């Protein structure tokens, strides 16, 4: 069985555009690796280099231990699912699935057996004689997967396969894809721009930005310990609130705007590097879920904000507030529209649905300091030790 | 679309329908005249005032077209030349249309414009040199004398049409084929062409019509009776003094019916071909 | 607000590595040339070379003998003969004016028909099929049909004229009626074709623009003039351009219907060229006519491209 290994892989186009910078990544056998990032970050380019659809400018690519840089896609033993499936519309489902096998001159009985088997895994048996035009979006997506599965490749490559489905279907298919991958047990590289997809599906997630790998870790680690501001802002929805702040002496407090927040020892010790930033500026990050509404029993530090808008989701209230601090934007972490609409000093918090709050109120939030993130304002790197 | 309530006989006799009726008259009357006259006797065709309905109805003209005027030969020649030229156009046209539409070549655009520019040159400018060349090759009065120029003349438009259709096919098709293990030629044959079928039909019907109706080259190159095509043959029915209209019309009906049926069957493709940008009469 | 851009946090990047060129792309590009070459050679061979040959021929003394065509010297006599030839000057003017008039009439009439058909609720399919028949007819046959209609003694036209007391028309024997008669035949055959193009263009127009106009209170005529026409312009422009360029080569209709007559009143440039070459065996003169026709077409092409700002298939690769 195979693993995929990228070693300092670069992609430079003819016009000089450097799409992928020194990407090094290892995907273990059977692992579901997600490449995520904003559009143009190079994730699709990286995937296509693994597929053999783009030439590798420099670096080494290995599949199953052998160097495949110069091999054609067919020789690499990979299978790919495209964003819009690229099903052959003039062929039936059975013919679509069996096409690659037919090209390999597999004897008809073996071919039919394999196609049937694959169709069963995907629940497509009754659709084998239909043409793609007669199928629904979800079914077509399954046919696309069937085409990939039937070849029993060493690696699955998926390029945003769920992007063309409507929201509800997408959630359903997410689980399906994961289930199927687990059953087949083949190493998979999955590209998406949707960080929720990345988090829910990936064994590990690689965050890319402008062709550079930002961090590759399990979803939980990305959430708890983002390596830099970009990853912190990109992962999590609603996005993390980022502010300019000043560190107090010894790293024991942080001042956001006009408010000072005392940091417990546990936090100071965990982020011992903060001491070097005393009286200096840092970027502080607070996830909306770490800002519950303060109640009578709250003992820890609080943050007060002027409420602009309250969105009731039923399970919680999403409170939009402003404080007198300067907001930080990680370029590219959100869509351009979202960035331009952001108001200075705005923040988002997720509070208990029973909290009595409305627009115009001034609300106290209990700060979950354990979840706070700190970043060097120049490099964007997270401050830990 | 505007919804205007039409009740009763207003539903039938409104402005649009009346106008449409006149359109039908405009086109239909001369057509009727053509068809009806083909059934007139030699006497009936030249009578004044003319017979608005043939009396007696006679199919003698149809017989004489074939027996007296060798129309069968002309029909055969037109068929051979048209089918052969269309076949050539389809083969070379799909290859070129595919290349210009989906393969990464530099100078694609220039080539396309060159093809289109060439296609507007008037036939008269090419007649004499082609005649001289064909004479030199001893190819005058032959099938290839027409097949080759016809194919060459219809290629630019066919390439335009085919390229347009191929552009509409999702670009991932080649990549999927590549990953599946298909060679570029196999990809073209098994994956792209079946999806470009409407374009192939469109190109075929246009080429067919153009070849079937071409006159100048057929007149100049294939002079002998054995190789004449329909347009030339029909124009030379009769003598200086006598124009046997009835027989001419009979032959015309026989000549128009097949192409009319083809165009009717493939009308969807004709219309989409006409609106895809370049238009030839 | 401060922004952290992608450059922050990255160490100075060394010059990007220059790797091997995209091999598959090169392979496909070569294949592309291979695929396109046959068509290119074929078309160029049958069109470019003859055109150049024609141009050369028009500049030489050409004589015909038993063995073939002989060309000697370089001379402008063929062209000076043209300029001095009243028949040529007439043919040039006639071809241009004939084209302009017929195309204009076809355009207007065709658009009217298309507008009518667009409003039609039933039978539109059959109407479109009917419209295609004149287009698919052989031009020679069309010429014979109208020749029969215009026939002096037993044609349908003269019968109709006589029954309404308009006397006895001699269409094909008198210059101006012959020209008009030819135009009518041409218009009859080509208008349906224009109507189809316009109709197809109309059908593709977005409906919401019209709904907005209706809500704004625009009248039918205003809507047509200010919304429909501008939206139709691209379709019409290209159709007109090709129709005009093709019309400069007018041959079939005059040759069969009038033989270029009476006299030379319906002799188009192409008929003149053909007669010169294959009736008078004056290949030099005929080539000059042919070349001048080609130049005319080229000129018309450039002019219409600029006038209509039509971009021929500019794709975004």
Walk me through this protein's architecture:
- The complex is a heterotrimer of chains A (385), B (281) and C (317).
- With 385 residues, chain A is α+β, with helices and mostly antiparallel strands.
- Chain A contains 10 helices and 20 strands.
- In chain A, helix 2 (93-103) packs parallel to helix 4 (137-149).
- The longest helix of chain A is centred in the middle third of the chain and has 18 residues, at 167-184.
- Chain A is elongated and about 75 Å long.
- In chain A, 47% of the residues are buried.
- Chain B folds into 2 domains: 8-62, no CATH class; 69-275, MetI-like fold.
- The longest helix of chain B has 32 residues, at 71-102.
- The two termini of chain B are 31 Å apart.
- With 317 residues, chain C is mainly alpha-helical.
- Chain C has helices at residues 23-58, 77-84, 86-119, 124-136, 139-150, 156-163, 175-203, 207-215, 220-247, 252-258, 269-279, 283-308; strands spanning 2-4, 61-64, 69-72.
- In chain C, strands 2-3 form a two-stranded antiparallel sheet.
- Chain C is flat, with a radius of gyration of 28 Å.
- Residues 7-16 and 310-317 of chain C have low confidence and may be disordered.
- At the B-C interface, helix 1, helix 4, helix 5, helix 6 and helix 7 of B face helix 1, helix 3, helix 4, helix 5 and helix 6 of C.
């Amino acid at each position: 069985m195979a693993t995929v290994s990228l070693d300092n892989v670069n992609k430079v186009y003819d016009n000089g555009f450097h799409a992928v910078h020194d990407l090094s990544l290892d995907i273990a056998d059977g692992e579901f690796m997600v490449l995520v990032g904003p559009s143009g970050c190079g994730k699709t380019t990286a995937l296509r280099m693994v597929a053999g659809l783009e030439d590798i400018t420099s670096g080494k690519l290995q599949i199953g231990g052998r160097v495949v840089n110069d091999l054609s896609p067919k020789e690499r033993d990979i299978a790919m699912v495209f964003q819009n499936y690229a099903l052959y519309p003039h062929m039936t489902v059975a013919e679509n699935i069996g096409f690659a096998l037919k090209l390999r001159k597999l004897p008809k009985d073996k071919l039919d057996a394999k196609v049937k088997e694959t169709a069963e895994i995907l629940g497509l048996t009754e659709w084998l004689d239909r043409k793609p035009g007669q199928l629904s979006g979800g079914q077509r997506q399954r046919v696309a997967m069937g085409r990939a599965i039937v070849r029993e490749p060493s690696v699955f490559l998926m390029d945003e396969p769920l992007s063309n489905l409507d929201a509800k279907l997408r959630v359903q298919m997410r689980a399906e894809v994961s289930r199927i991958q687990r059953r087949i047990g083949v190493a998979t590289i999955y590209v998406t721009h949707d960080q929720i997809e990345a988090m829910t599906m990936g064994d590990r997630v690689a965050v890319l930005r402008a062709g550079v790998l930002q961090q590759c870790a399990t979803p939980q680690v990305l959430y708890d310990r983002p390596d830099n501001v970009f990853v912190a802002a990109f992962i999590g929805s609603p996005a993390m609130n980022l502010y300019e702040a000043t560190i107090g002496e010894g790293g024991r407090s942080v001042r956001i705007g006009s408010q000072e927040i005392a940091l417990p020892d546990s936090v100071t010790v965990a982020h011992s590097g903060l001491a070097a930033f005393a009286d200096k500026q840092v970027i502080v990050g607070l996830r909306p879920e770490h800002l519950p509404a303060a109640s009578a029993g709250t003992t820890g530090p609080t943050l007060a904000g002027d409420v602009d808008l309250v969105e009731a989701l039923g399970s919680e209230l999403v409170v939009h507030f402003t404080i007198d601090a300067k907001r930080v934007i990680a370029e590219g972490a959100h869509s351009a529209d979202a960035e331009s609409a952001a108001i200075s000093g705005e923040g988002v918090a997720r509070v208990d649905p029973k909290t009595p709050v409305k627009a115009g109120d001034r609300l106290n939030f209990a700060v979950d300091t354990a979840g706070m993130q700190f970043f060097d304002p120049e490099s964007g790197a997270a401050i830990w030790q | 679309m505007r919804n205007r309530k039409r009740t009763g006989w207003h539903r039938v006799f409104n402005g649009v329908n009346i106008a449409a009726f006149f359109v039908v008259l405009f086109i239909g009357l001369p057509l009727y005249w053509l068809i009806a006259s083909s059934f007139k006797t030699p006497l009936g065709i030249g009578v004044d005032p003319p017979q608005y309905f043939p009396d007696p109805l006679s199919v003698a003209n149809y017989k004489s077209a074939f027996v007296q005027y060798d129309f069968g030969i002309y029909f055969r020649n037109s068929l051979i030349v048209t089918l052969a030229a269309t076949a050539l156009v389809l083969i070379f046209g799909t290859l070129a249309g595919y290349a210009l539409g989906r393969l990464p070549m530099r100078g694609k655009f220039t080539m396309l414009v060159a093809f289109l520019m060439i296609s507007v040159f008037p036939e008269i400018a090419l007649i004499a040199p082609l005649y001289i060349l064909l004479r030199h090759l001893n190819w005058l009065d032959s099938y290839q004398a027409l097949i080759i120029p016809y194919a060459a003349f219809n290629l630019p438009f066919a390439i335009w049409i085919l390229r347009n259709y191929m552009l509409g096919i999702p670009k991932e098709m080649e990549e999927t084929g590549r990953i599946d293990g298909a060679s570029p030629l196999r990809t073209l044959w098994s994956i792209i062409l079946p999806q470009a079928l409407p374009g192939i039909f469109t190109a075929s019907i246009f080429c067919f019509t153009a070849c079937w109706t071409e006159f100048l080259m057929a007149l100049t190159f294939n002079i002998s009776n054995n190789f004449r095509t329909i347009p030339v043959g029909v124009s030379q029915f009769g003598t200086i003094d006598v124009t046997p209209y009835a027989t001419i019309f009979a032959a015309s009906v026989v000549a128009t019916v097949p192409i009319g049926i083809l165009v009717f069957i493939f009308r969807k493709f004709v219309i989409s071909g006409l609106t895809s940008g370049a238009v030839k009469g | 607000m401060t922004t952290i851009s992608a450059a922050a946090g990255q160490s100075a990047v060394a010059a990007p590595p220059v790797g091997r060129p995209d091999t598959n792309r090169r392979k496909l590009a070569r294949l592309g040339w291979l695929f396109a070459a046959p068509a290119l050679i074929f078309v160029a061979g049958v069109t470019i070379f003859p055109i150049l040959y024609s141009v050369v021929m028009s500049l030489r003394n050409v004589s015909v003998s038993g063995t073939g065509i002989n060309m000697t010297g370089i001379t402008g006599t063929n062209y000076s003969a043209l300029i001095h030839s009243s028949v040529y000057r007439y043919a040039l003017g006639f071809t241009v004016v004939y084209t302009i008039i017929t195309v204009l009439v076809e355009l207007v009439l065709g658009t009217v028909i298309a507008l009518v058909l667009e409003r039609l609720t039933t039978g539109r399919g059959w109407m479109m099929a009917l419209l295609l028949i004149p287009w698919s007819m052989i031009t020679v046959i069309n010429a014979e049909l109208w020749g029969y209609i215009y026939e002096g003694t037993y044609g349908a036209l003269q019968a109709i004229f006589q029954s309404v007391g308009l006397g006895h028309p001699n269409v094909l024997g008198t210059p101006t009626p012959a020209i008009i008669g030819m135009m009518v035949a041409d218009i009859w055959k080509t208008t349906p074709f224009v109507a189809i193009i316009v109709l197809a263009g109309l059908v593709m127009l977005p409906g919401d623009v019209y709904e907005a106009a209706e809500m704004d209170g625009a009248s039918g005529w205003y809507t047509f003039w200010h919304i429909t026409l501008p939206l139709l312009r691209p379709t019409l422009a290209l159709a007109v351009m090709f129709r005009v360029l093709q019309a400069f080569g007018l041959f079939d209709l005059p040759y069969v219907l009038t033989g270029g007559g009476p006299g030379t009143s319906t002799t188009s440039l192409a008929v003149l060229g053909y007669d010169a070459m294959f009736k008078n065996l004056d290949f030099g003169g005929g080539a000059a006519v042919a070349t001048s026709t080609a130049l005319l077409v080229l000129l018309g092409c450039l002019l219409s491209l600029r006038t209509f700002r039509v971009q021929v298939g500019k794709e975004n690769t």
